[in-house]
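Ticket #4471: structure output looks truncated?

Reporter: J.K.
Steps to reproduce: submitted the chain below (269 residues) through the standard prediction queue, then opened the result file.
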Amino acid sequence: SYRDLESRLKAAMRDRAKATRLLGTYLTALLSYPDRPFDTVELPEVGRPRELSKEVVYPKERALVEFVKNELAAGRRTWVYATFTNRLDVTARLQQILKKNGVQAAVLRQDTVDMHEREAWIAREVEAGVDVVISNPDLVKTGLDLIAFPSLAFFQCGYNTFTLMQASRRSWRIGQEEPVRVRYFFYQHTLQEAALRLMGAKVRASQALQGKFSSEGLVALTQGEDMMTALAKALIHGIDGVESAETYWRSRRQASRMLARPEPVRPAS
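Returned output as attached by the reporter:
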């Protein structure tokens, strides 16, 4: 079903006028469809994506439940990020799936919890015994510390590199006594993987400005195109030459561990 939608979108995007006018709609549809292949809507010039069952718990959802339950077994709460939270909302479904698996989950919504009340809302939920909170990363990417949630799970990542970088550090704040774990969930060989791969290259580019150089980062720095354009090119032409999402984020995790490891104190000679 995904391949069918992808092929139709590719064909439509080869028409320059359509691609320019409908690029955002097409990319959002392809990124979100694997996570919500039901209640589909008609896409301009393309038609309606194939409708699948709501009753199935899909592979990425099962992987998220497994991760959350493993973290809970270790005494760790998890904050889950979902990017598409309006018409393509998945937060209520994730909450329902987690609750069916014995996980107490809450959803932080922009329309129900004002920005200035979010810290107090989080404290109340923790006090009430919540195991998981699900939200759009935009709601917490700056200004909020999620110390009570040492595990962060990106169920969806979108394609905003700044948001991803900021949201991924919400638990790694002063006062955090637990190791912080960040997990990114995606379907392999889909635009979700391409987005993570491209954002990895952009993160390396931003690190180059801070003196943390790598050849991949310098390449991304010189390209200078926005993520939407890069994703469109990845959809049509592929992204050969950029390492896999798993490889990149694993190397980033290893680098973070090295940075966090204190240097041994040697006695003065």
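Triage note (M.O.): checked the attachment and the full token line is present. DSSP finds ten helices and five strands in the chain.
Status: closed, working as intended.
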